[in-house]
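Quick illustration, no need to memorize.
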Amino acid sequence: MREKLTRFMYGRYGGNDELSRFLLIAWVIMFVASMILERMSGIAGRIGSALNWITFIIVIWQLFRVLSRNIYARQRENAKFLQLKDKVTGLFHKNRDTAHYKYFKCPGCRQKVRVPKGRGHIEITCPRCRARFVKKS
């Protein structure tokens, strides 16, 4: 049986990438949420039914990706997903280095200058206009 499955999957994408993992996690979360909300009455029950349909669509999409023979198209999908993921996560990691650096604006040209924290009073030279100013980091 294992050999038949291996032969069947030969030349197919298989779906072991970031988009597949995201779809699997989204499916699990939406499935659990739909099971909880479906048992409630009113609008929550209707939302649960809608989530149930969305989970069905996610499963179909995932199966399509796994069984697809167009490997390059699936790789392009994953690449687009990774670009979108980087844009979204970049919004949250944008100010990640604020724990180690302090930012000042140059009084001459308003250029933002990054200096390390905890160095006391330091003389900062603007990289754009070469103006010098003293600030406490």
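Residues 34 and 53 are 9 Å apart (CA to CA).
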